[in-house]
Description:
Blueprint lengths: L2 H19 L6 H9 L6 H4 L3 H8 L8 E2 L14 H6 L6 E8 L2 E8 L7 E3 L6 E6 L4 E7 L8 E10 L7 E4 L22 H4 L10 H12 L18 H5 L3 H5 L15 H9 L5 E4 L21 E3 L23 H12 L4 H4 L14 H4 L9 H9 L3 H4 L48 E4 L11 E4 L4 H6 L4 E3 L7
Antiparallel strand pairs: 1-4, 2-3, 3-6, 4-5, 5-8, 6-7, 9-10, 11-12, 11-13
Helix pairs in contact: 1-14
Amino acid sequence: xxxxxLTAIAALTLLFATNAGAEEYPSPQQAEIARTAAYxxxxxxxxxxxxxxxxxAVSWHSKKTEWGPAHPDKYRKDKIYKWVERDxxxxxxxxxxxxxxxxxxxxxVDKVALADVDLVVGGQRKQRYATYYDGGPRKAWxxxxxxxxxxxxxxxxxxxxxPGNKERAGYKFLFIEVRPKDGDLNKNYYGEFYSxxxxxxxxxxxxxxxxxxxxxxxxxxxxxxxxxREIFVADISISCxxxxxxxxxxxxxxxxxxxxxxxxxxDVDTRQMVCGQCHTRTAGSVHGKGANDLxxxxxxxxxxxxxxxxxxxxxxxxxxxxxxGKGRRDHQQDMDIRLSKTIKGAHSVHASMACFDxxxxxxxxxxxxxxxxxxxxxxxxxxxxxxxQGQAKNVLAVLDGSKGWDKYGYDNWANEGGRxxxxxxxxxxxxxxxxxxxxxxxxxxxxxxDGDARKExxxxxxxxxxxxxxxxxxxxxxxxxxxxKK
Length: 486
């Protein structure tokens, strides 16, 4: 390793060490504001931070959800892919109504007109659409899956009567999923039967009030509310307050003491959660049946109080994780990064880093503003070269979690294959230079309550950072490949 590289790494290590020893940030007062103050919406931020607001407004974060053509006063033209608008009448633009059973969905037989699309979800690499459903009975077809929901087949030969379900009312997804390239339709189709509000809203908007939503849904179910069109957010997409905390107090008194500046956060878990609150994949929400987000979460709070991490499957793998813990699906960057603490140690550089140390949150995707790298503060090779110098090109190979490993797919999960380039964030190599997670001797397990330690089925695979939490529940935690054989 070159002297320059050692110097760079030492400097960065000193930076994090110094930050760790600094005065606690955010202060208790700032943390209290983050947890209790009201969200005001990004338009309030634009008065003083117009330049940054303009950058965020055209970034990829602004495309996480947008109003569709059904809201002409809010719809930004050309946000639906041009080819999709052109071919709309040829596509299977049917609304997914509900789940019949674990392998079957009800899909409405009536096509949704382009003008009736309420929400456009995504835009950078794929797009989905949603329209409002009132929970009433409909004529339906059945869509089935044979691979756990990865792909769906719609049977248009038989029409059935769907009785309706007011619990599913809200903005419902259509059966199609599309990509920017002309004619690029996901032939696997889509199978999400929960509404956007039930399932995804917290990570696709800013300041979602889950308690107000729960109250509205209860009132609707009881016949005390006309509909569930209201979405209870400060901004329909990702904006300032998602990362800096609610702006109520800052608008009243614009000082640095009542808003959060993420790079100054001293606690590693807290700083990583700024992005990790959404760049994650959950096994379920604590605050919403069927929710796949951390609804209700506010900066400085704990992940485990709002959702459960998607589970690893040590030594066997599953759709979400490889046998060594590398992520396989979208949004799992946080789990990849957290593994660094186990792999390299709590005081390693990567274990101390957060997404915004390398990524440009304000300008992600906004090439026309400052012409940065699409996601990073500067070109990828330069970001890594800050520490790794001339080895940066080789180090970048770690971002391809699939390189060198066997391919995986439905019913073939038992290998170390992870995600493709730019998606993997396990910053670790094995002896052959491939991206690698945990060794078998590092696997973590928790014995179920009243479980038999000699039975494999009674051991639950857990993430290393969950060890204290499970021990706090009074459960036995073991580390190693097969604790039931001991």
